[in-house]
Amino acid sequence: MRDASATGAKAEPSKADSGISRPKDAPENPRRIRIKVNAVNLRSSPELRNENILGQLYRGEELRVISKTGDWYEVETTKGRRGFVTSSENYVEALR
């Protein structure tokens, strides 16, 4: 399975408030992201639970960012499916 779907989200405090640093050229709230590891779970809610895994997204897949909730992006795949993925720069990269 290459992608899956999910629900709504809310805004996040700025990175300056959270103490997390970002590369100077990375957007604070990107419009698109790309998966940079072999696979990332797409989840139905912004939390780590086995029950909310909808499927996996793979290296190189680009996603439209709908919103950000804490350490999670709510995303839409190229096939129109929605879900949540981690916002960690270890797993995804912001696109300009």
Could you please describe the fold and organization of this structure?
The protein has one domain (28-95): Roll (SH3 type barrels). 4% of the residues lie in helices and 39% in strands. The protein is built from one helix and seven strands, in the order αβββββββ. Strands 6-5-4-1-7 form a five-stranded antiparallel β-sheet, with no helix packed on it. A two-stranded antiparallel sheet has the order 2-3. The longest helix has 4 residues, at 15-18. It starts with 14 loop residues before the first helix and ends with a strand. The model is unreliable at 1-27 (pLDDT under 50).
Strand content range? 35-45%
For the record, give the distance between the C-alpha atoms at the N and C termini, rounded to a whole number: 27 Å
Instruction: Let me know the CATH homologous superfamily.
Output: SH3 Domains
Mean pLDDT: 80
Series of H and E elements: HEEEEEEE
Give a short account of the largest sheet.
5 strands, antiparallel
Count of separate structural domains: 1
* Basic shape: globular
CATH topology description = SH3 type barrels
Q: Note the total helix count.
A: 1
Helix content: under 10%
Strand neighbour order, sheet with most strands: 6-5-4-1-7
**Taking Cα atoms only, what radius of gyration do you get, to the nearest Å?**
12 Å
Class, according to the CATH hierarchy?
Mainly Beta
The second-level CATH architecture is Roll
Number of strands: 7
Low-confidence stretches: 1-27
